[in-house]
Amino acid sequence: MMTDKTYDYIIYSASLAGVLTAIDLSKKGNSVLLLNFYGFTGGSITESLNCYQFAEVKSLSATAKNLFENIINSKHGILYRSENEFVFNPETLKMILQEEIENSNFDLLFHIVPFYLKQREDHVEFSVTGKEGIFNVKGKIIIDASDEYDLLKLENVKRSVKEIYYNLFLTGMKGDKWQSFERLNKFIKLDDNRYWASLKIPKPENDFFIENASQKILNQFEEAVQKNEGRVQLIAPQSQKIYEVDKLKISEKIYHINSKFNKVFSAQEKFKECSEILINF
After folding, report:
1. 221 falls in which pLDDT band (50, 70, 90)?
2. What is the pTM (predicted TM-score) of this model?
């Protein structure tokens, strides 16, 4: 990556939509820089273990379908399947996305926190912090591909949380009393006898305390799990937050990727959402 270079596109973050869009745009001859907060890709599927997804393979675009089939054909890529319902292995998704990135022609930076956007006449200055310290990158177009509208928030777009979930994997369960836990939103028994579970978190008065509220519910749930001789095997790095915003586009140079279509997809339709984005790009 060259900080004095003006990229055709800068994309944040490396969500499913972000990675596939970066691949698609770079294949069309554009210079692309992909930025991400975590040191791995996948968006809410890997960051929040939003692994329970709906997908109809035959209706996906070529790029989305190729990724989907690579996951399905990978050993342990799918942990549960029932018709068009799937529970994806987040580690497999990380590896496959990384392989796709390594076979593509765009720049990638991990551990990036964006904090300032400034529109110039022919480009946008994008200020970020990373392992390298504070630095600026330049792009003709800045695309917010984050699941939580992070760049729109920088531009003072009104963002409000609608729902909060905390997702996790359980193992060693010997009873079913834990299934009556008040905040348990959904659970699925996986092919290897583990469970994927989702807890619905009450919205705190201040969004700053969302993770604290999530941890409190998680601690209570973990006690219920232990009473059934089970244990929490894997927890998400962060809670899954479903936001709504009052607009998706700042200008022709700065916009959220979902502004490309007039549809609203659920958090369980990430592959379908990506397919629509790539068709309309």
Report:
1. very high
2. 0.95
